[in-house]
Design brief:
This protein has 6 helices and 7 strands; from the N terminus they run ααααβαββββαββ. The protein is globular, with a radius of gyration of 17 Å. Helix content is 37%, strand content 16%. It is an alpha+beta fold. It has one domain: SMI1/KNR4-like (3-Layer(aba) Sandwich).
Length: 219
């Protein structure tokens, strides 16, 4: 494990989690306890490849986030605090989502429409870490080489098989999100805001807008 990569992640994730704790406590409370080392070993066995150091660091901090309903009339649950209402997954959920993601990749291989180095035919080497409510995936590329650790979002339910680069690492992704939150600026096409429910709970949400990508190019 690269110590510098873990330090970079811990710093970026610490900033993001601190922002949630101060500005969006319902989302912060949705984070689960850490995954165990046994869980991580089981995850690597199920995936068939070692975890990126920053993925391991994330799961060692929190085994995903719960989708906590604020009230029957709330338009989104707490815990879905990433762009497009993505929610962080725990180990068991990752394994379930991976089977689906890898299956999509196999279908793409059979379709013979993509080059061998394109993302669409290498989804079996990617690990989903968050899911939205529309059938897409946010995942970390685990192919060895220059794309190792890249964070992508792919709206598979809408037919998007090219994906959007959210960051060149989890540290870069969460660092860019926090920069956007602190400055009130967009992350790519998503502008941060706070959803205030009638219950008094405040949750982070991201409004989709047409804009020139700004943040999100972090490393």
């Amino acid at each position: 494990m690269s110590e510098s990569e873990v330090i970079a992640f811990d710093h970026a994730w610490g900033r993001f989690r601190a922002w949630l704790g101060e500005k969006s406590p319902a989302d912060r409370a949705a984070l689960r306890p850490p995954a165990t080392e046994e869980d991580l070993v089981r995850l690597e066995k199920g995936l068939g490849f070692p975890l990126h150091p920053q993925v391991r660091a994330l799961l060692r901090t929190h085994d995903g986030a719960e989708a906590r309903s604020l009230a029957p009339d709330a338009h989104r649950p707490a815990g879905a605090f990433l762009p497009l209402s993505h929610r962080l997954l725990g180990v068991d959920e990752i394994l379930e989502a991976y089977e689906i993601l890898a299956g999509v990749g196999e279908d793409n291989i059979d379709a013979d429409l993509w080059d061998d180095d394109e993302l669409a035919v290498n989804l079996h080497r990617c690990m989903p870490f968050a899911l939205p409510r529309d059938g897409g995936f946010a995942f970390v590329d685990h192919r060895q080489g220059p794309t190792f650790g890249h964070v992508h979002e792919m709206g598979i339910g809408s037919g998007d098989l090219t994906g959007t680069l959210w960051g060149t690492s989890l540290a870069g992704f969460f660092g860019a999100l926090t920069d956007a939150l602190e400055c009130g600026e967009p992350f790519l096409y998503y502008r941060p805001g706070t959803y205030a429910h009638t219950s008094g709970a405040h949750c982070l949400e991201w409004e989709v807008q047409v804009a020139t990508p700004g943040a999100g190019e972090g490393t």
